[in-house]
Specification:
6 helices, 187 residues, binds 5-O-phosphono-beta-D-ribofuranosylamine, globular, alpha/beta
């Protein structure tokens, strides 16, 4: 199988990045992580790029037209697919349009519920019975594209933001690779 050259965009911890790096070592996994882009120069996730010798790029999204630099880099590394993993910035339209149906995101709620930030806090406040994560295609609206996979767990009365985060992350580590396998199964 020819693996799709993939770029992972991060801003923080990078535990989903780490998980994808491990999964992509499997010959039958459809993607290879060829590039990491971080919007935050102190993101812990950059250490995984360093440790596993994956080229990485730090970007400053405050600089006007920074997206052209990003597009240039993506071209240089022949990137065919993009995974957002804890990327906290809006992806510019120019990048989304170039990667239509080739850019996906993982979100820590059962979309369309709780788009945006503070999902755990809002789920608790709303007394949700269940929560989980969603992998979806990225379009020009926030957390809005076609859904690829959702994974669900049921809340317990003693759950708090910390436990919800832990449970969600655990589900994410199976949801993100499964979504990627699903996408490429029939391509
Ligand atoms: C994940 O919960 C993901 O759903 C959200 O940001 C978090 C990133 O975690 N978009 P990590 O940086 O992969 O550890």
């Amino acid at each position: 199988m020819v693996k799709k050259k993939t770029c992972v965009f991060i801003s923080g911890q990078g535990s989903n990045l780490k998980n994808l790096i491990f999964r992509s070592r499997d010959n039958s996994f459809p993607i290879k992580i060829s590039l990491v882009i971080s919007s935050n120069r102190t993101a812990k996730g950059i250490n995984y790029a360093k440790k596993y010798k994956i080229p990485f790029m730090l970007i400053n999204t405050k600089i006007r037209n920074y997206e052209f630099k990003v597009l240039k880099k993506l071209k240089k590394f022949q990137i065919e697919f993009i995974c957002l993993a804890g990327y906290m910035k809006i992806v510019p339209d120019k990048i989304i349009n170039k990667f239509k149906k080739k850019i996906i995101n993982i979100h820590p709620s059962l979309l369309p519920k709780f788009k945006g930030l503070n999902t755990f806090q809002r789920a608790l406040k709303n007394k949700e019975r269940k929560s989980g994560c969603t992998v979806h295609y990225v379009n020009n609206k926030l957390d809005d594209g076609i859904i690829i996979i959702k994974k669900v767990f049921f809340l317990k009365s003693k759950d708090n933001e910390i436990t919800l985060k832990q449970k969600t992350h655990k589900l994410e580590y199976s949801a993100y690779p499964e979504a990627i396998i699903k996408i490429f199964r029939y391509r």
